[in-house]
Amino acid sequence: MTLLCARLSRWALWEDTNGQASLTLHTSENTSAVSHPSVQNDLARSIKPGWRRRLDLFGRAAAETLTQMLTLADNPHIVFCSRHGNINRTVKLLHQVVTNEALSPADFSMSVHNAFVGIASINWSITQSHTAIAAGNDSLIAGLTETICQMMATQSPVILCYVDLPLPDVYANTFAEPQTGVAFAMRVEPDKAITPEPPGIGKALTFSSCGADQAQAAATSPYDQIKNLTAFFVSPSARPLTLGSSTTAWTVSRHD
């Protein structure tokens, strides 16, 4: 079994349940939690106003977590993933088609799956490649797989950013699981054994792939996977965590 080593330097989780939003930020130095009484207006302040006006809650929540992953003069690779994408804009466009209304150019351009990460790259002058992934219920695992592989291939930092919001009412009966708005980002870097770093920067992790049977047994929704992953990050226990999808699974362990 091949063990892939990485260092988790920071992560951030934004959640919105029934209008009650919170942001949890963890770096190598501390963990902090901040409540946002005004969800959309308080997010993405680090985005320049001209670009920020184009972002709805989907983009602003993603930006709020992504900005926490960046450092000065940073130029990381970014892997962006979402199960449903900015579906509220898509449904709005479909309604305009059905009712013979003129399509909103802003909504059309921002409904593209990689629209947010494109704006983020311009805003923060990131010139490294970015990847946009949509893989249904497997979206987070697909994004995690791409993140780990890019980090190993480039031997440079890679940021994983995931976002999904509750589905519009027209899809209310389509999915049984609770609908919670979530944006999550994590920054992984080559392990210090490969690229020397200051001591104590982040958590040293190993990732090992599992077979299809174990993957399907461990498969859960992206939201549950994110909650399990962040709980693992802060837990004092050394017990490994397995995250699965329909075809792939990763077992995450500490190796500090």
From TrEMBL:
<protein>
    <recommendedName>
        <fullName>Beta-ketoacyl synthase-like N-terminal domain-containing protein</fullName>
    </recommendedName>
</protein>
<feature type="domain" description="Beta-ketoacyl synthase-like N-terminal">
    <location>
        <begin position="45"/>
        <end position="248"/>
    </location>
</feature>
<dbReference type="Pfam" id="PF13723">
    <property type="entry name" value="Ketoacyl-synt_2"/>
</dbReference>
<dbReference type="InterPro" id="IPR014030">
    <property type="entry name" value="Ketoacyl_synth_N"/>
</dbReference>
